[in-house]
Amino acid sequence: MGKFRYGIALLAAKMSVLALKVTKHNGTNFPGIVALRICPDFLKYIHKPETIIGVTGTNGKTTVSNLLNDLLSKLGRKVLNNGMGSNINTGIATCLISGVSLFGREKYDTAVLEIDERSARVLFPYVQPDLMLISNLSRDSIMRNGHPEYIKYILERYMLEKTKLVLNADDLIASSVSEKNPRVYYGIDQMPGDFTECRNLINDMQICPKCHTKLKYKYIRYSNIGKAYCPNCDFKSPEYDCVARNVDVKNMTMEYEGGGEKAEFALLNPSTFNIYNQVSAITMLQQMGYSLSEIKSAMEKTQITASRFGVHRIGDKAIRNILCKEKNAYAASRVFEYVGEQPGDKEILLFNNCIGDTHHWSENTCWMYDCDFEFLADDKIKQIIVYGDRGLDYKLRMLIAGVPEDRITFVKDAADGVSKLKMIPNDNIYVFYGTDSFNLGMKTTREAEAAVRAYNDAHGISSVNDENNEEEA
Amino acid sequence: MKIEVLYPEVANLYGELGNIKYLQLSVPDAEIIETALNERPRFLDEDSHIDLVYMGTMTESAQIVVRDVMKEFLPELKQAIERGQRMLITGNALEIFGTRVHDVETGDTEFLDILPFHTERDLMHRYNSLYIGKYEDISIVGYKSQFTHSYADGKFEPLFQTVRGCGLNPDVMEEGIHYKNFMATYIIGPIFVLNPKFMVRVLEEAGGKDIHPAYEKAAMEAYEERLAEYSEPDRGFIY
After folding, report:
1. Tens digit of each residue's pLDDT (9 = 90 or more) over B127-154
2. Alpha-carbon distance A19 to A34, whole Å?
3. pTM value?
4. Smallest Cβ distance to A143: which of B145, B225, B236?
């Protein structure tokens, strides 16, 4: 009965793919939804590639799975990847459906699956990764994810004993998942610019798990990412099995050592976050049996899908739109820190309100007090414009963070935000938007561009060099 | 004023240390004492004159660590509560003062048994909700986000009377615990920031005089807007 239902489900899912194409609809989960509705244990029966690589973690999993997909393809594998779809069970079902013929025959030898941390429960009984990369476990949506230790609990509860884990040794929460599983640790050795004290509000590993003494860090980068040790007992971060050393951001190089090999790699991106992503991918490929020379060769032809953002220069001013995930204090803190460090005077349209919550209930604003708004209390940031239901919450949070009141502008309607820009000479205008407010972010960016052009025209400022471009963070 | 913050190295989830930052900005001359797990709390000694003890939400494993630390001075903790030590306990830190937490999968874990209630926990089901309640004449707004609910096994006063949302569990409107000057609530996050009137009342009850919330105008505008929003009849309340 099960296999019969599976056959019907596969046929229906394949037809739904066709229907979506014909009607020009996007439905990244729809075939999977259809299949799982007809056959709840569809994932049990569908043929899967011989090798399954899982990538999970709070941040970076999309970047790493895209990178692995690209590298493995260059290394000659036929790779199935859910990069175009979602990372929950219906998205992964959709991905696996695309990997088999109508008669269920598998077309790929390897799957690289980005897996939502909370989907382990419904996935792992049927989709069993041979290797699993856990990039980091940090605070995310309070309503959905609770806290990182809870996500660790979910992963441990459903992790298969046979799955080999590739773990970030510099994250004590991620590196301690499923301690009985076979594992390999990667990390980045001390870098210039590291700290020894956490300067972020979020620090989820402050005490020794053995004796509860306050941990010390030989080096720390952000939140609890770094090399910890207990001053009272023998507890410390795991030793690196694979490590990046002598990271040289200026010359964009690093030395990688692991698996008895050593090689110099070109950095794909200078941000610490993406260096971790790159090192994790190298480590994963080594575990799959590739030599460093093979990996290096593939990597030379590869680009990382970094956190790119649009920059539009119009005369003396520039407009940048940056994804700043709503309700994610950890990710927003990285954005605030980055923007705070950039040279030049700035104005920010802080438009990452959670619009979905506004429509259905009301945004839980606890995240604002985990998030380092203090990075925005910078003299180079001349104005921050907030709007809507949560605008007053943002305003109060920024006052508490030390942003002077005369630099915070509240508008009830987002459409009025751009008109409040001061258009200071050589202005750097940033539009922050969330995944939920993507369309608003794009619309506001276009309005800001038009406003800059109009202002420059009215004030005799040249708008030559009017060009779109991209920058990376 | 002297404010003692217990175990901020673990009791710091959901932006709750924002309460202390806001309190410090509102009462600039307040002395904030942060007590770590390996330190003896000051409030246990009556002559330390701690006006308010605060402890916030933590992970489930940290609850066990804090329980074990507190067991070391349990009689003194009970004495302090009985003599009227003012305390504000938020989120699941509340559960440490009950008899036990019953997890649907792993069974019972004993806690301090200071107050007559127990907790039921289901880590696979998270309860998320907005909240409106009353503390005396003051309207309280806030959030709940938890794996647990607590159930009274004896009599105690609630901290808040629920207007909208749920109390200690979905079957009751009584929210939190108010025993002498011990106050505990399941409301998480920056409760003082969201409720400047409540912060002032708590601090005044603790002996503070002429307290004004920092950035009072902005804080009150945000509070009034939230209260009006949560009072809309069609506003979704449970996620």
Report:
1. 999 999 999 999 999 999 999 999 999 9
2. 12
3. 0.93
4. B145
